[in-house]
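Exercise 7b. Backbone tokens:
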């Protein structure tokens, strides 16, 4: 950790370190969290299909925002799980509530993303066949 006194407006070194630590967090989550891997792969597939179906740019932006929200929520959920495990080593009803509610938040985001995906893709897929 370098000193935060004597700060310049932008320290490229600190910015580089921030990206590095953040990427380590993403890598850790990718390695240990199955849901994150599933959501990431689905996200790539969705964006590829959006290109193939030539979905308008504004709707693609909506997809990117929704996908980013789901993946970001997965990362926060993972951080919360680790924080709970750090503090609580035994069964605790409050730990259960924290983990379950955080998982519920991911679920809500994923559900919202699925609804948005259906609203964008279903009419196009329907038009392809009928
Ligand atoms: N210390 C605890 N006390 C009580 N219940 C717990 C505790 N730790 C985990 N649980 C329960 O087990 C569930 C799974 O917790 P765990 O930490 O294993 O998450 P996980 O299986 O890794 O979840 P995910 O697959 O989303 O990463 C929690 O949602 C919670 O209901």
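Sequence design result:
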């Amino acid at each position: 950790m370098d000193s935060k006194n004597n700060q310049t407006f932008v320290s490229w070194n600190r910015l580089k370190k921030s990206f590095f630590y953040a990427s380590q967090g993403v890598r850790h989550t990718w390695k240990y969290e199955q849901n994150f891997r599933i959501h990431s792969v689905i996200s790539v597939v969705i964006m590829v299909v959006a290109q193939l179906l030539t979905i308008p740019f504004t709707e693609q932006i909506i997809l990117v925002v929704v996908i980013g929200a789901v993946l970001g929520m997965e990362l926060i959920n993972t951080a919360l799980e680790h924080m709970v495990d750090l503090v609580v080593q035994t069964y605790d009803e409050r730990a259960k509530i924290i983990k379950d509610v955080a998982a519920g938040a991911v679920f809500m985001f994923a559900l919202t993303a699925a609804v948005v995906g259906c609203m964008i893709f279903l009419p196009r897929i329907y038009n392809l066949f009928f």
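Instructor comment: The chain has four helices and no strands. The radius of gyration is 19 Å.
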